[in-house]
Structure formats: C-alpha cells, structure tokens
Amino acid sequence: MIGPEFREIQIDLGALRRNVAHLKTVIGVEHLMIVVKADAYGHGMIPCARTAVDAGADWLGVADIHEALALRQAGIQVPVLAWLHSPREDFQEALANRITVGISSLAQLDAVASASYAWEDGPAPVHLKLDTGLSRNGIAPEEWRRVFERAAYLEGDGAIRVQGIFSHLAGAGPQADLAAHVLFEEGIAHARDAGLNPTMIHIAATATAVTSTSMRYNMVRIGIGAYGVSPDDSTPVADMGLTPVMTVRSRVAAVRKVPAGVGVSYEYAYVTNQPTTLALVPLGYAEGIPRSASNNAPVNVAGQIRTISGRVAMDQFIVDMGSEWVAVGDPVVVFGDPKRGHPSVSDFARACGTIGYEIVTRMGGRCVRVYVEL
Ligand SMILES: *Cc1c(COP(=O)(O)O)cnc(C)c1O
Fold it and tell me: Which CATH class is domain 244-370?
C-alpha cells in the first residue's frame, strides 16, 4: 500500500494566520472578509475559516449557500456572504442561519424577500452585487434602477435591508479597473438616490486590495493572498509579506537505472539522453497534477530542483535524476515555500500554462491533508 507520506498536502495554519494578520495591518480597512469558497481554495474550509477568524477576519465569503451552511454547522458565527445562487434557490435556510445573501438579479431580490416574509425574523440583510464589467453574475447596469427601486420598496416594507453594495473587477488592466471603479461609484450614487443607505461598500479582491488604496472602501474580500499565493504569479508572494500555506509532499516510491535512449512514461514523450537514474513519484492527474506539467514543471526531489520527465499519468510521474544520488523514500516537494528550496506554486503553475489559483484549488485525489502550525 502507498502510505499517506507519499501523497500529502500540508496546510500550514500558522502561515495562514500570519498572512491574514499581515493583510489586515497593511490594508487597514474597517472590515476584512476572507474568502473560503471552494474548500478554501483547496486548503480545507473549516480549519481555514476558524484560523482566519482567529487572526482577525470579521467576515467570511463563499460562493454557494451550501458552503455558508457548512460554516454554520461547524459553529462559525461571524457574518458570511454568499453570492452565487441556483435559479430556484430557496433562501429560507440561509436566512434561518443568518447568512447574508449577495443579490445579482431582481428575481433573487424577490426570492429573498419572500423567504424573509415566511421566516418572519425581521429584515434580511442583503448586499447588492453590481456588474461593472465582468458580464457574469452581478446586476447588469440596465437593471440597476429597477432593482434599487424595488429594494427601497422592500426595505420600507421590512422584508430586507440593503446593508452593502459590492462588485468584482475583471483584472483586465488599470484602464478597465478605472472604468469599473467609475461605474461602481455611479451605481452607489444611484442607489442612494433611490433611497438606499448601504453601510458596507466593497469591490477589491487580493490584487486590488494590496496594490490600490482608492478601491478599499470599508471592506476588502481577500482570497488567494491569505493562502500565500500571488494573484498574478509574477510577483513573488514574499514581496507581499506573505507565506505559502500549501506544500505538496511526496516521496520517491521507486528508483530505476536505465541506459541512454530509453523512452519514459506514455508515448515516450521523454527519452533519456545518457545512462541515468529515474525516480518514480506516486502523484498523478488524479491528485491534481496537470497533464500539462509533463516535461515542463519543476519539482524538488531529494533537495534538488528537477523537471518532470515525460507524461504525467493518472497515478504517477517520473523525474530523471541524471547522475544525482537518489533512493526510495527520499523526500519530494511538488511546490511549497521557495524560502525552503521548494518550487513556488506560481512557478509550477506557469510551467503548466495556468495560474496558482487553479493549482492549489485542484490538488486532492488520494492525497491526505495534514494540518500543521509552523
Ligand atoms: C473569489 C472571489 C474573491 C476573492 O478573490 P481573490 O483574488 O482570491 O482575492 C473576491 N470576490 C469575489 C466576488 C470572488 O468571487
């Protein structure tokens, strides 16, 4: 049997704690939301949420109401915002669990209002999500007026309370961000004209929160930065004062000496060019190692940074160690903290043609998650 030491995702909650505390200090806004959607970007939602709250987050953010309910079931009491809903979402359970609903349409607003009348526990707090250029969820600008007027009416009726207005940026460059910022300001002004009085305004996720002071308002929504991953993969996270939280560890499961000219793994996409030693690592695309890492991505084997040799298979990949000495059981780190000699997740992601966000979120399969406090 392949033991857990061969497939380990180490989560350093100490690093998460320090990242959250650091971001809170440098950003310095009234409210800090830590985004824990998608199982905290693959880091484990409940332990990460607890740690983030402990480190000073006063809000948590998720996409689905299901995720918000799981936080409540774990006994986490801080305000939670959920912003992505199914077309027939029933909001009663969300309201009963004091989950704040992000609203992206008139229909959602009315559905929350109905749930609020049925639940009869005072106005339901909502945050209106304005689309300022992403063209995905969020209320389209043509709809703003109708939604604001309806929201003002429902507020007067005691069904809802528009506590917040928010948006999300496309990350399409400074010009696009500026245009979105201007549009957002217009939306807020129109909402006020319609009689709404939101007290929480938020648009910035990690990239904007750390680089621009003008879009912090009184809350920022931080996901990737809290996990110690760079939002753009070209700025090392250490430059942002952050430490990677996830380290993917394995061990060499087998070693084989081969001559020159030997094809390695499927399709012989790699052929040895000298007599050499091959190390087998029992992680594959089932664990989230992208197949595009084949012949591209860095990996630390026995303390050396090498490149994956040949195709990544479902369960395993090979590393050509050349004349390096390597033994079964030697440590392997796929990515982790560059300060410890590991490839960064950004370097690994770039080699695979993707972004750090995707790599950390997809890791799993037969790996075991191990929580530590370093
Ligand atoms: C995922 C998400 C965030 C967090 O973004 P990061 O870039 O990970 O900080 C913030 N807001 C919304 C609406 C999101 O969907």
Answer: mainly beta
